[in-house]
């Protein structure tokens, strides 16, 4: 499931600098200088944005939003969900097999059926890096619900991808799609570190021999090419790295968790 925290919108009287300060404080950066260090920018440049001396555009807003756990739309316009004064409380939940209220999510490691974008039509990028090698699971947020708590991966960004491309080219629905970043080199030269991939969470079964986000149930998610072993009983699958220097592994299909199929690739130049 996806839990989205909503509350009253920020007052329209707030300036960009004031929203930036609120986002920084909510992200537990106690001073502007510490935030500037974490961002890799000069303290004077950052302070000029926060105190309103200089305005900033979408590209800088996106960098601030990623670091502070909010959205560029919130920083630029004040639009977006708030939770206890913190912008960007949207999250996509992990599947927890020990959690009874999620017992109907069999086979899925992540889902996003109730996430709502702050930018209409956007696809969420999670604080999750799929490994071409080892992956990284980023910030996990706990939010109270009537039945207890829901844990989930923070949405760090929203990508506007044309709906016609998703439907007609990628053959997916935006409502079951997420974006994650790639780290590591085991899938080079096809997928490079820093590239993003579009993941169709509804395709969590091995139907076609292609590239998927997978997990062994214990480690972080990885991106690998899967190929079914013909006539194997029990069914087996080859886990293939595109990097020719790395070994191919064979495992029983039932022991592998398929999170989703890679249906798009956003490459860096």
From TrEMBL:
<keyword id="KW-0805">Transcription regulation</keyword>
<dbReference type="InterPro" id="IPR036286">
    <property type="entry name" value="LexA/Signal_pep-like_sf"/>
</dbReference>
<dbReference type="Pfam" id="PF00717">
    <property type="entry name" value="Peptidase_S24"/>
</dbReference>
<keyword id="KW-0238">DNA-binding</keyword>
<feature type="domain" description="HTH cro/C1-type">
    <location>
        <begin position="20"/>
        <end position="75"/>
    </location>
</feature>
<dbReference type="Pfam" id="PF12844">
    <property type="entry name" value="HTH_19"/>
</dbReference>
<dbReference type="InterPro" id="IPR015927">
    <property type="entry name" value="Peptidase_S24_S26A/B/C"/>
</dbReference>
<dbReference type="InterPro" id="IPR001387">
    <property type="entry name" value="Cro/C1-type_HTH"/>
</dbReference>
<keyword id="KW-0804">Transcription</keyword>
<dbReference type="InterPro" id="IPR039418">
    <property type="entry name" value="LexA-like"/>
</dbReference>
<feature type="region of interest" description="Disordered">
    <location>
        <begin position="86"/>
        <end position="109"/>
    </location>
</feature>
<dbReference type="InterPro" id="IPR010982">
    <property type="entry name" value="Lambda_DNA-bd_dom_sf"/>
</dbReference>
<protein>
    <submittedName>
        <fullName>Transcriptional regulator with XRE-family HTH domain</fullName>
    </submittedName>
</protein>
């Amino acid at each position: 499931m996806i839990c989205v925290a909503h509350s009253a919108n920020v007052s329209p009287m707030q300036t960009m600098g004031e929203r930036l300060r609120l986002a920084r404080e909510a992200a537990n950066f106690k001073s502007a200088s510490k935030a500037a260090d974490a961002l890799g920018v000069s303290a004077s440049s950052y302070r000029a944005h926060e105190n309103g001396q200089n305005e900033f555009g979408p590209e800088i807003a996106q960098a601030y939003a990623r670091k502070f756990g909010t959205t560029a739309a919130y920083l630029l316009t004040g639009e977006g969900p708030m939770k206890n004064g913190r912008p960007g409380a949207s999250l996509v939940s992990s599947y927890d097999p020990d959690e009874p209220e999620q017992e109907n999510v069999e086979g899925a490691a992540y889902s996003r059926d109730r996430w709502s974008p702050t930018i209409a039509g956007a696809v969420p990028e999670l604080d999750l890096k799929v490994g071409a090698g080892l992956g990284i699971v980023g910030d996990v947020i706990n939010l109270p619900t009537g039945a207890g708590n829901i844990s989930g991966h923070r949405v760090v960004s929203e990508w506007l991808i044309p709906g016609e491309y998703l439907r007609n080219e990628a053959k997916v629905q935006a409502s079951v799609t997420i974006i994650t970043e790639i780290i590591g080199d085991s899938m080079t030269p096809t997928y490079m570190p820093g590239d993003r991939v579009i993941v169709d969470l509804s395709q969590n079964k091995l139907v076609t021999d292609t590239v998927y986000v997978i997990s062994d149930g214990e480690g972080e998610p990885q991106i690998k090419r899967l190929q079914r072993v013909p006539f194997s009983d029990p069914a087996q699958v080859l886990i293939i790295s595109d990097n020719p220097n790395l070994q191919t592994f064979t495992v029983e299909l039932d022991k592998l968790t398929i999170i989703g199929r890679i249906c798009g690739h956003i490459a860096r130049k």
